[in-house]
């Protein structure tokens, strides 16, 4: 099948970028979207042009490195799917495909489709952990956790940190990302001790990183590859309020 | 050259305690004067960096990904082993040790393996304390499941994302230290050279992948936790960026490589569907707990899998290995699949796969139970193939997965370069010729959390008086120039073939001749072909742009340049080992039934290899293996 | 990076709490207005008496100040949040993000502005008239607000303006009610569902209840 691509090209963080047109004649529906991009790059390299820089690594939807806006949607047209797991069978012969980087004030573009998501690391650094040193741990079964709570904590912990929630949010809010970690840890007895401090410091860091307000449109949950629930945001709000009041 | 594994004295079960009791310590006040470089932020790297920083050392951590959380440990699905015996099914440290030694086909060191099993207990405790949400029983206690190659349930899991959850635990521990400024984390930095000063590892040269800048970093010890290099086969279950470069460049500076050809080919990956394909997605081995593997009894059976009646199916693993059935170890399962596929019974469009069937499990346990256990795997399968695996069997096929080989290390995980340590998959130590499922997460964690803090301290205790290492020493400048020279060379060829083109060619050569089965003729052929490919690479490689900017193609080219050299060593390694063991199956050495035939008299050793220069044959340095606690038996899973 | 004085979450709390108070007020307002559906004479007596009662009570007076404050804070906070978000948000050349969420959840600002414009007219029509206008007096001696209400809906286009504004309010509530519940931290899935169902019914009843009044008056009196 044939597709027409309009890809954002930008030489570096400071340069002006623009959409550039490319044509692909030999696309196979079973190809993954990124394999289509590989094929394009092969062509560009042989022509001596700089290939399109895009983030990717594991290509099985778990590392969270890949992620672009495809036809105006984070990770493309499918719900709850990473860019690397999107296949060309989701497009039709003759389609025009717009490919842009994830955009937000907090995610500056580095080159072409690559953006800087280090803000996420700093949010985790502000308290997204249990303060336990190696060697301090007690016997594992001395901390019972109900099956349901462990599963629920897992659901929150499954976040891959790709940034689709921010990219799809009209406010570029990082509420889903931040709340997933806050609620993962508050659901477990191990994380409860530091819950109040964590809620305050992580939210403060999130604000410092230039993310917008959450306005509960729930687009983030729809695009999240791990289907992280927006109820985590409610949990964060609750924990934050509790911490503020009881501070 | 003689290799000394530095195994502590005493009975097997006391060796690690003995070591810990006698290892040299560093006074807390002195620790902050000592710097340690950790390359890689996977489970081994993150856990080592975090643990050493918690102790008070100054740590510099490096990864090529844009966040430490993305290292490929994240992709491990199935679980992590620990001899907790929570299931009361007779498990013990010794039994786990024995399973691992036997699973590795008696080609690993007893003392290392015993320590691995021993430390597994503490690892589960540590991970739970960090908030890793392991699967739980309804009563609130930890659950586990069984995995390939063993007869007890000792695999702890977080649904199908155990690697992710363990890595996030280690990542969070690391980031906590970064926030506390005890670790200086450099993401998007790739190691290009090891700097050796007066015989000791003293630093590394790295490239900032965002800007192209070359940086020198010095330290009192260097830890490589850079993972495996299965990506050398191009099509593999590994991430696109996984590479051998860090360990290979250390190898060229004097660190021996051990058993580089021992690559685990994983039995349950998705089959290749076309030439454009960039990776083979793994379906967790845990699926074999409930899935049954079969091919049609009739060649080229055109019927759909659900239309083939029970009596016309060949459940070949259950047939050949009745005791372990679908849970036979990976090397055996992969080879059995290859045997059926090569014999013409393969299924799928390319006739390169076998079925993994859940209908019996769904009938017996209900769809909901199966969904709870493997939901994410089934939906991943559907996304990639467009097939609903609840309704019809999955199609699976073997794929390159794990490097049992790597830098040779002693009991302290130190390489043959003093001060250079290798942790996790980057080293050769615990898995022998075949790794058991759910032991890789374990090894990475144990190396990083529990072994390195003792052994690195033991080394650093001698470095208290050294003082800061000057990164302007001639050795650093020479290493930097060396790195720049290679980058500029690659960027200036300006040929017409991409790095991927060479990588794919190399991968195919290796898969065909140094993959699931090997023979003398094929290996010799492969060595000659790789040399030709290498010449072509340096004549016709195309890398657009320069080394002074973000340049993904240059990164790839550097990795392929190393792969072309590693591949030759792999073939030498396979060629000189005239026996079959674990993942290394030499067609010349097999039983009449087609099982691997070990030669304990001549090959009960680890092949460690030294670098003799680009055009020279490598130097073989054997490390004899002595077994005092187990009998070398024929590994039987029948 | 400058430190924000008030966190994004606190600002959202302010939106939610003022919004929820306004939601509560709407219920009381609607219940009072239902008196307009009584037969004309009875409605006049009852409605005017009710108005008198509200304006005389010190407790109600206090509530009314909270009400005015809520409206002002809710609007100003919304303005601040919107301006802030606009600065932080990514902009795309080709944008189909809307496919992942409901249109009214993304356009609370526009809906809110319509409601604010409506409120200006609404206050002018009734609140201003009642407080400062020259009103006729009914049989019981109370100010005849009922008469003002009937006169207000004489024009069809004005009735339609009211009805339209009520639909804007309806969509605003449809998102606003459970969004507020989420912002104040209602996270248990069971109660979240309950609130969502409740909020939907609430929005329908408020919208159709208020919209029915001008229509009823227009069709019964003109």
What would you say this structure looks like, in words?
- The complex is a heterotrimer of chains A (247), B (638) and C (222).
- Chain A is built from nine helices and seven strands.
- Chain A has 247 residues and is an alpha+beta fold.
- Chain A folds into two domains: 3-114, Beta-grasp domain (Ubiquitin-like (UB roll), Roll), CATH 3.10.20.30; 117-246, Alpha-helical ferredoxin (Fumarate Reductase Iron-sulfur Protein, Chain B, domain 2, Orthogonal Bundle), CATH 1.10.1060.
- Chain A has a five-stranded mixed beta sheet with strand order 2-1-5-3-4. Chain A has a two-stranded antiparallel sheet with strand order 6-7.
- With 638 residues, chain B is α+β, with helices and mostly antiparallel strands.
- Chain B has a domain at 266-401: Succinate dehydrogenase/fumarate reductase flavoprotein, catalytic domain (Flavocytochrome C3, Chain A, domain 1, Alpha-Beta Complex), CATH 3.90.700.10.
- In chain B, helix 4 crosses helix 5 (110-130) and helix 10 runs antiparallel to helix 11 (367-385).
- Chain C has one domain (8-81, 105-221).
- In chain C, 77% of the residues lie in helices and 0% in strands.
- In chain C, helix 1 (8-33) packs across helix 8 (189-221) and helix 3 packs antiparallel against helix 5 (108-132).
- The longest helix of chain C has 33 residues, at 189-221.
- Chain C starts with 7 loop residues before the first helix and ends with a helix.
- Chains in contact: A-B, A-C.
- Chains A and B meet through helix 1, helix 2 and helix 3 of A and helix 3, helix 5, helix 6, helix 11 and helix 12 of B.
Q: What percentage of residues of chain C falls in helices of 4 or more residues? A: over 70%
Order of helices and strands of chain C: HHHHHHHH
Largest chain interface and its two residue counts?
A-B, 80 and 81 residues
The geometry of chain C reads as elongated
- Number of domains as seen in the coordinates of chain A: 2
Distance between the ends of chain A:
61 Å
**Helical region count of chain C?**
8
Tell me the fraction of residues in β-strands of chain C, as a range: under 5%
* Major sheet characteristics of chain A: 5 strands, mixed
Q: Work out the number of β strands of chain C.
A: 0
State the helix count of chain A.
Answer: 9
What is the count of β-strands of chain A? 7
- Mean pLDDT reading of chain A: 97
Oligomer: heterotrimer
CATH architecture of the largest domain in chain A: Orthogonal Bundle
Structural class of chain A: alpha+beta
Secondary-structure element string of chain A? EEHEEEEEHHHHHHHH
What portion of residues of chain A belong to β-strands? Answer: 5-15%
Based on CA atoms alone, the radius of gyration of chain C comes out at 20 Å
Strand line-up in the sheet with most strands of chain A:
2-1-5-3-4
The major β-sheet of chain C equals: none
EC number (chain B): 1.3.5.1
Domain FAD-dependent oxidoreductase 2 FAD-binding (chain B): 36-441
Catalytic activity (chain B): a quinone + succinate = fumarate + a quinol
GO biological process, one term (chain B): anaerobic respiration
